[in-house]
Design a protein that fits this description.
Order of helices and strands: HHHEHEHEEEHEHEHEEHEEHEH
Number of strands: 12
Shape: elongated
Keywords: Methyltransferase, Porphyrin biosynthesis, S-adenosyl-L-methionine, Transferase
Structural class: alpha/beta
Largest sheet: 5 strands, parallel
Protein name: uroporphyrinogen-III C-methyltransferase
EC number: 2.1.1.107
Strand content: 5-15%
Number of helices: 11
GO molecular function, one term: uroporphyrin-III C-methyltransferase activity
InterPro entries: 4pyrrol_Mease (IPR000878), 4pyrrol_Methylase_sf (IPR035996), 4pyrrole_Mease_sub1 (IPR014777), 4pyrrole_Mease_sub2 (IPR014776), CobA/CysG_C (IPR006366), Siro_Cobalamin_biosynth (IPR050161), Uropor_MeTrfase_CS (IPR003043)
Amino acid sequence: MAFVSNLPSISSSSSSVTQLRKPNSFNTHPFNSIHCASCSSTSPFTEKHSIRRYERDNWIYKNQLDQSSYCPLPPDSNSVRDYDIALQLPELKKLLQVLREKRESGGPGAGDGGRGPGNVFLVGTGPGDPELLTVKAMRVIQSADLLLYDRLVSNDVLNLVGDDAKLLYVGKTAGYHSRTQEEIHELLLNFAEAGATVVRLKGGDPLVFGRGGEEMDFLQQQGIQVKVIPGITAASGIAAELGIPLTHRGVANSVRFLTGHSRKGGSDPLFVAANAADPDSTLVVYMGLSTLPSLVLKLIHHGLAPDTPAAAVERGTTPQQHVVLAELKDLAEKITSAQLVSPTLIIIGKVVALSPLWPYSSKERSILVEAK
């Protein structure tokens, strides 16, 4: 199996569970096995090691753990990740075998009548509110055999998955990638080749900072049919929630989406050209909390007014939504004071002052509206 041979620290033998680098007494219950700062959180999203996540994915640890034992894992995230994958591997292999047998027999879930591979759907789940799902996304989610989901897919969306489907967490967050991008590619390929209907769930839209294009390109090169079901990207969903028009006649004639992280990372990855500081445009920054101070300095350096209205929204469109509104020069400081955490979206531009939530001069808002 390709995905087995491509996992760096796991052999194709199920005995590899005992061969991994790990500390002594590593036999542990998955619900308690990893430091779980998010277990008591009210976050609507799937945190990297939450109790709820392990309950949902419990099938994949079947017969691998002594349910009565407990030993907390060390803070070494590489050891945690390697051990977690090793525990998953036997059940993944078993599921692949079942799907292959279904495909060969032409039974339910065989994929193209048992004659060809299954389909992969890249599905956008929106910014968090399950009511923002499209009807098509809902139908595909409820008919899937296997769903690979990211950290920013909300729990409310995951609760819509069919009873017979299998869920596998492949989320990434700073300092912990449960699966590398290459491993995700191999999982999608292997299950599709076994005839499964595979759904790749992504927060927002799969083709907006979701690496959906990479997954689509890889699978298509392997002869797998990929269908993309768009989702409401965070920019649109959260701006609508706050009453911020991303474009507005006479105020903003364009909108630009930026990512706060470069491919190689670093504390200052953003390159902001002069036209990115256009006062007649709206900037929306994804994943930009850590690099915002640098971004603000660059925007002001390129001519954007320090008093440009701006908003930062944590967990937008969910009941846990937390909003910070401020002028650009003060935004980073106010975000720090408010202790916003990921996922937080940042919107910068005069259109922010059109929101009914904007706390500053109402005269300024009236001028903007009349400017159209």
